[in-house]
Design brief:
single chain; six-stranded mixed beta sheet; 18 helices; globular
Length: about 675
């Protein structure tokens, strides 16, 4: 019996697959080192030469060849051309090329396994067991099916995003602000001279908060444009968008308000055991009890929440809640006293958040506040059952009362009120809820303007400008865009007082951090805020500026969060947007440019280029200017000489005057 001559395969000819750009390729079978008992016979004598040439070409060419794709050799020597399904399966198996190359290299190093043919194949899980037709030496790897990106998200994406942000915050090591000690609390109170000023002119009421004579907060309201924040409505659901996880609710204000899934009261929705999806909780036409959390701004409607909270003088009442929180601005001993009082006065089916104004408040005052808010919630609940939607069930008081309720406490040294109507309203409220603060209340009866005496109007005018100058000579440039507010810090005329550039830049950035916080509070800037400080080399200086920024933000009552410092040195932070802002209160959109700031014209008007202004170097001498000054001096000298000659000609000679006097008859 004639035997077919064997063709030995050198291990050097088997090259590891090279991962090329684009989609990688792989041959139908990866042939490992052969054992001594197994031999491979080619179909034709010239096939061995072709295989050697192919191996030489593959070693020279960095890209793998596709000649063997879809062709598989059966044990009887025939060639099986794979179908499209097999080709697709081979394309999916390219992820195992590195593993196959590693195994082939290990087998090359083992001379004992020089005659064994091994074939590796991967199959998907769930396709059945096809190992009966495989060779015993075939290695089969089962690959798990790929998961979709949103497969693990159950329920609302907004709720999951909130949970993820909390987890990331814990992972990054961000912790809540430490509780103040008694000494720090008193030092912070005594370090600032805080004054509140209220001015009423017609239907416009302005409230200013000054710290050491510097304006830090400003509130303005008009009779025709009152704020909706805090009002409680019974609304009718107009539309539910599951893809946006939001519902549009009609509250009777013309434009529909928006209720997001993260603000839905899921306990009252009755979805126990089901996914928290807004389309399951709300349907078009349903009546829902909501509260406004943000006024309409631009084309956006008001923001709503179904988690109702009623603010009081000393605490915030949260019906159908179980959370009890106390302001972290209070010292530890005061927090413990308030916790003990709340256990006795709070009902079991409600939650509460204690305000900073509750510091030192007696138990009777807290109990009266809880009883008043409980009665108010009962009235709202009863009106909800008998009122048709949409309608308002509860309205927040006037802005003067609202600001006095939230801000006027022991930290304010004096509150001055200008205007008879405002004085009557504020005096009645303080006498009812805080009679111990009546001695700090003052009625302005002078003929001079209150804001003029305190220089409030002057500071408001500066706050409306785009550029803010720092006391040392630096400057801030504040620009608002559709997505965020950008603050740029410049050194300007500040050149430092000795030291190096790093010290000069650090001093300027620290001063800018303090002014940035004041501008955020004064202008009521909300949303995403990006601050571009001047680059600093030392890490300690960057930490110093960031720490100073966070310390100054401690005085801000509005919810805020400093996110991180980017790789480019930009400080990212967010601040809750509540009102329309200072600029919107004292400005209107330009009719010519529609608020863009430029007027675009192609052919209507000729485009005149602005003259180029060259900056003269310091201590430079301009010959033209020197000549002009010399000419002016010469002309002035000539005019002076001519004037002296004219005066000399007009005056008579003293000798002639005396002679004439003697000749005159008596």
């Amino acid at each position: 019996m004639n035997t077919v001559p064997t063709v030995p395969i050198e291990p050097k000819k088997v090259s590891a697959p090279i991962k090329a750009k684009g989609k990688a390729t792989k041959k139908a079978a990866i042939v490992g080192p052969l054992d001594s008992d197994t031999q491979v016979a080619p179909d034709a004598p010239g096939e061995s030469l072709e295989s050697q040439e192919d191996s030489e070409e593959s070693s020279k060419n960095p890209r793998r060849r596709r000649g063997g794709r879809g062709r598989r050799r059966k044990p009887d020597g025939t060639v099986d051309v794979g179908t499209d399904e097999n080709s697709t399966e081979e394309d999916e198996n390219q992820e195992s090329m590195d593993e196959s190359a590693t195994d082939a290299a290990e087998d090359d190093e083992d001379p004992a396994s020089a005659g064994t043919k091994r074939r590796r194949r991967r199959r998907r899980a769930g396709q059945g067991d096809e190992s009966e037709n495989d060779d015993p030496n075939t290695v089969v790897r089962v690959r798990e099916p790929r998961r979709k990106q949103n497969e693990d998200i159950k329920g609302s994406t907004r709720i999951e995003a909130k949970k993820q942000r909390r987890r990331e915050g814990r992972d990054q090591g961000r912790r809540r602000a430490p509780i103040l000690t008694e000494a720090e609390f008193l030092a912070r109170r005594e370090s600032v001279d805080r004054i509140m000023a209220i001015r009423q002119q017609g239907d416009k009421t302005q409230i200013a908060v000054l710290e050491d004579g510097v304006l830090v907060e400003h509130y303005v309201t008009r009779g025709s444009a009152t704020s909706l924040v805090g009002n409680v409505y019974i609304g009718r659901v107009q539309n539910v968008l599951p893809s946006m996880e939001a519902a549009f609710v009609d509250i009777g204000k013309g434009r529909n308000a928006v209720l997001y899934a993260g603000e839905v009261n899921w306990d009252a929705a009755g979805l126990e055991g089901n996914e928290k999806r807004i389309e399951l909780a709300l349907k078009p036409g349903d009546h829902i009890l909501v509260q406004v959390t943000k006024d309409p701004v631009g084309q956006k409607g008001a923001r709503l929440t179904s988690q109702i909270s009623l603010p009081g003088r000393f605490l915030v009442y949260v019906p159908d809640g179980s959370m009890t929180g106390i302001s972290r601005k209070l010292p530890e001993n005061e927090r413990n006293r308030l916790k003990t009082i709340l256990k006795r006065v709070m009902p079991e089916d409600a939650g509460v958040i204690v305000r900073t104004a509750a510091e030192g408040a007696p138990e009777e005052a807290l109990e009266q506040d809880v009883q008043r808010l409980t009665a108010l919630w009962e009235d709202i609940s009863s009106s909800n059952k008998s009122t048709n939607a949409p309608s308002m069930l509860y309205a927040e008081p006037d802005i003067a009362i609202k600001v006095v309720r939230d801000i006027f406490n022991e930290d304010v040294n004096k509150m001055v009120v200008s205007g008879d109507t405002a004085w009557t309203t504020v005096d009645a409220y303080i006498s009812a809820v805080a009679p111990d603060l009546l001695d700090r209340l003052e009625h302005w009866t002078d003929s001079k303007d209150l804001f003029g005496q305190l220089r409030v109007d002057e500071q408001i005018l500066k706050a409306l400008d785009r550029k803010v100058y720092l006391p040392s000579g630096g400057s801030l440039v504040i620009d608002r865009t559709e997505a965020m507010t950008v603050v740029d810090v410049n050194t300007g005329k500040f050149t430092g007082a000795g030291g190096n550039l790093e010290e000069t830049v650090t001093k300027n950035n620290v001063e800018a951090a303090e002014e940035i916080v004041r501008q955020l509070r004064l202008r009521d800037i909300g949303g995403i805020i990006v601050v571009d400080f001047i680059d600093m080399v030392l890490e300690s200086n960057r930490d110093l500026v960031l720490r100073r920024l966070i310390e100054c933000l401690g005085r801000d009552r509005t919810k805020h969060q400093v996110a991180e410092v980017t790789s480019l040195g930009l400080v990212q932070m967010t601040r809750k947007r509540i009102g329309s802002g200072l600029i919107e209160s004292f400005s209107h959109e330009c009719d010519a440019c529609n608020g863009r700031g430029i007027k675009v014209s192609l052919n209507e008007e000729p485009h005149l280029e602005a003259p180029v202004r060259y900056r003269r170097p310091a201590n430079a001498v301009d010959p033209a200017m020197v000549a002009a000054k010399a000419l002016e001096a010469a002309q002035a000298n000539e005019q002076a000489q001519e004037l002296a000659q004219e005066l000399a000609q007009e005056q008579p000679t003293p000798g002639l005057e005396s002679a004439g006097a003697e000749s005159d008859p008596v």
